[in-house]
Design brief:
By secondary structure, this protein is mainly α. It has five helices and no strands. The mean pLDDT is 85.
Length: 86
Amino acid sequence: MQRAAASSSRQHAYRLMEQLGLRWVRLYDARHAVLKYLAVNGVPDVILAAWAGHTNAAFTKARYVAPDAEDLRSAADALDGLHGVG
């Protein structure tokens, strides 16, 4: 029963994306993107965990919030400032 509800919700979301002219994204990827966005914008870990439906904030952070190349670029730019580059 739960699997059928998830499938129905997923199909509904994809129809909405199409109707609104939005780029199609997997809901799984959207979940990761939202949690990462919230994390890098200062939302506390316990709130992220609650948003994701988890009881363990460390699990949520480790599973859904991993830095990517773009995140690391801003750290590299900051380091350049320390060295007087840029």
